[in-house]
């Protein structure tokens, strides 16, 4: 059996899993990233964890996913704010230390690849994964290939415009999806309704301390019947609907999967998104697409990273 | 020298050109489509015109572009309103009659392919062509490949949402780009300003008959300094800017080319589009992209069709 290592490099932890060629996780390990100690330390931590988890077994390839902008060909992290990385080489030092082929990819792209090959998107040719967390990102598989663009800066659905003259965003734009449908956006919207004097049962839980408000709390209250929470989730879902109609009319996909923390809201979120797409997307595209929750859960990051290794090794063989 | 035939099937005319392998037009012929006489007649007209123009020379492959939704693999036109086509086989009857490989593609996709290989987009890997006419369409080359999607219904930029609760569109959606930035949208906007009592020098030309208003006239007046015409073109450009920011943040392309009748407005249209993208797209993506006018002009349709033949033959060889 061929064994692959998937490395999910995050701001806090490095998660490493060994998988087989079908993305099934065999074993898993976590190590602190220690980004504050510099990129060389982070790379040492990755090398150490991969060596440790392999336990002498032969690993066919390593997939590494990192936040930020990645030069996929060179395996360099051009920029990642939460790692404090700027032009950090990843592929070369890892290959030198491990003597295994290493492939680097952006984390959302890797998650999309994993979900497409081994999760909800299996069997499709055109697949979109949207991740709703504190930020909003996406990865797109078009005609059986992950799209990369000029600088591997594709599928920034969180910064597509859903409100022409809307809220100013820290990307420099205005009216970006991320301002409305991220966890942060949902909390902001709830605060604004509360400030206007609206009643919600969340107020009892947070006891006047609005900093304790979370999107998870609002989703929970919505599920329990709180009208204002339902209103807020519905608005966030409609804005997500706008961005997804645009993606559905642009990529004509078979499937859109929604993942990330906000997706835990489940049907309360996905139902209005589905309705919005049915009523607003073009007929052929609306009929072709199904909207589902992502399925890989906790292991999405490492399975995505392993998928990068598996797919890349296949491509190298094909050449 | 290898010779290719490009057939541009339109509602009124069939345009056929012979080109070399670099998309250079050698000769050109036009024949009425006669769509009202049925699809069999249309196919006969194509066959006759291709035979006539070839004059016995060997043609390596035929590229045919058609409006509407095309099944590219089967070479079938699934639906094209202005041809009155529904599930019309094109590839098979043409190949049988001509004994040459025939490849069928949607007209906007073909134009994008032509502009990418032989026009403004040469040398890029990520390229978007937007066509602004009575409708608005696009074709997208992502990582060196024209994207097709599940049903070859991709890149419908004209039906991406630029105004969440905007004008109802005949696609069933609302706030679609096509309602604002097409020739039709520009004329509608001007009429609304005039109805409110605004002054424009176009009124002298149309002598009270608002049905004589055209987008070309408005663009001309804008260039000549008419303030209201400038305002209308600027608004149309801003809406186009919204849709293009979304495409630029999604595809991270090197180039966006703007073609079609409305593009004849030139700088008056493209300048505010460029400014909008600079100020609203993400930094990396905004830096990577240049916005230009399409360059193939009158022959765009037939060169695009020929490009489909040239690219498809290449792909067949590669397999």
What attributes characterize this protein structure?
homodimer; 319 residues; alpha/beta; 5-stranded mixed β-sheet; 41% helix; 22% strand; globular
How would you explain this protein's 3D organization?
Two copies of one chain form a homodimer. By secondary structure, chain A is of the alpha/beta class. Chain A is built from eleven helices and 13 strands. In chain A, a hairpin with a 3-residue loop joins β1 and β2 (13-19). In chain A, α1 (39-54) packs parallel to α2 (91-98). The interface between A and B is large, with 49 and 49 residues.
Short summary:
The structure is a homodimer of 319-residue chains. Chain A contains 11 helices and 13 strands.
Q: Order of helices and strands of chain A, N to C?
A: EEEHEEEEHEHEEEHHHHHEHHEH
Given as residue ranges, the uncertain stretches of chain A (5+ residues, pLDDT < 50) are none
Q: Oligomeric status of the shown chains?
A: homodimer
Largest interface: A-B, 49 and 49 residues
Strand-pairing-aware structural class of chain A: alpha/beta
Major sheet size, sense and barrel closure of chain A: 5 strands, mixed
- Tally the helices of chain A: what do you get? 11
Query: Distance N terminus to C terminus of chain A?
Result: 23 Å
What is the topology, as strand order, of the major beta sheet of chain A? 3-2-1-4-8
The beta-strand count of chain A equals 13
Helix content of chain A: 40-55%
Mean pLDDT of chain A: 95
The best one-word shape of chain A is: globular
Radius of gyration of chain A: 20 Å
């Amino acid at each position: 059996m061929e064994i692959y290592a998937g490395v999910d490099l995050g701001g806090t932890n490095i998660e490493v899993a060994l998988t087989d060629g079908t993305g099934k996780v065999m074993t898993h390990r976590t190590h602190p990233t220690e980004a504050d100690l510099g990129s060389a330390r982070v790379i040492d931590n990755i090398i150490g964890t991969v060596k440790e988890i392999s336990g002498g077994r032969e690993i066919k390839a390593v997939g590494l996913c990192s936040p930020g902008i990645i030069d996929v060909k060179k395996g360099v992290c051009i920029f990642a704010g939460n790692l404090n990385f700027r032009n950090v080489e990843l592929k070369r030092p890892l290959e030198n230390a491990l003597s295994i082929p290493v492939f680097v990819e952006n984390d959302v792209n890797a998650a999309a690849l994993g979900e497409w090959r081994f999760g909800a998107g299996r069997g499709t040719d055109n697949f979109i994964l949207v991740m709703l967390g504190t930020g909003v990102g996406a990865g797109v598989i078009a005609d059986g290939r992950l799209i990369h663009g000029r600088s591997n800066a594709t599928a920034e659905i969180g910064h597509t415009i859903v409100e022409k003259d809307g809220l100013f965003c820290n990307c420099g734009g205005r009216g970006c999806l991320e301002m409305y449908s991220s966890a942060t956006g949902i909390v902001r919207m709830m605060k604004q309704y509360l400030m206007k004097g609206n009643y919600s049962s969340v107020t009892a839980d947070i006891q006047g301390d609005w900093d304790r408000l979370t999107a998870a709390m609002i989703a929970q209250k919505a599920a329990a019947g709180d009208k204002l929470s339902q209103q807020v989730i519905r608005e966030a879902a409609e804005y997500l609907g706008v961005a997804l109609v645009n993606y559905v009319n642009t990529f004509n996909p078979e499937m859109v999967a929604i993942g990330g923390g906000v997706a835990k809201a489940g049907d309360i979120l996905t139902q209005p998104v589905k309705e919005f797409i049915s009523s607003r997307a073009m007929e052929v595209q609306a009929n072709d697409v199904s909207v589902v929750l992502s399925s890989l859960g906790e292991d999405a990051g490492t399975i995505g990273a392993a998928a990068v290794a598996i797919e890349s090794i296949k491509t190298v063989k094909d050449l």
